[in-house]
Design brief:
Elements: H1 2-14, H2 21-38, H3 44-47, H4 53-69, H5 71-98
Helix pairs in contact: 2-5, 4-5
């Protein structure tokens, strides 16, 4: 149990810059802009990260950890993550139809 307490303390120390109000305001603004404008137009090299399970687990861990400190930021991260996954799945479906020749030529 001591290992978990020390691990939690290490994570809290690493994420301590997020306790600064100007940093949190910038992060909230960035997440709002990301979810509404940037995520639908992400390049392929960034969307590839959303295919990796360890990256998804990291983002989910980040959402859970952040929800203990600031639920608003956790919701913004969750919305951005959901939008990114939705864009990725839509792009995969569109690419699947791209190779189909509908004219039979």
């Amino acid at each position: 149990m001591d290992y978990l307490n020390s691990y939690n303390q290490s994570i809290n120390n690493f994420m301590s810059p997020l306790d600064n109000p100007p940093v949190m305001a910038f992060l909230k603004l960035f997440l709002i802009v990301y979810g509404s404008m940037i995520a639908p137009h992400l390049p392929d090299y960034i969307l590839k990260w959303f295919n990796f399970v360890p990256f998804k687990i990291f983002v989910l861990f980040l959402i859970v950890w952040t929800s203990n400190h600031d639920p608003t930021v956790a919701l913004l991260i969750a919305v951005g993550f959901t939008v990114s996954i939705n864009v990725l799945s839509g792009k995969k479906a569109f690419e699947a139809f791209r190779g189909v020749n509908t004219l039979g030529v």
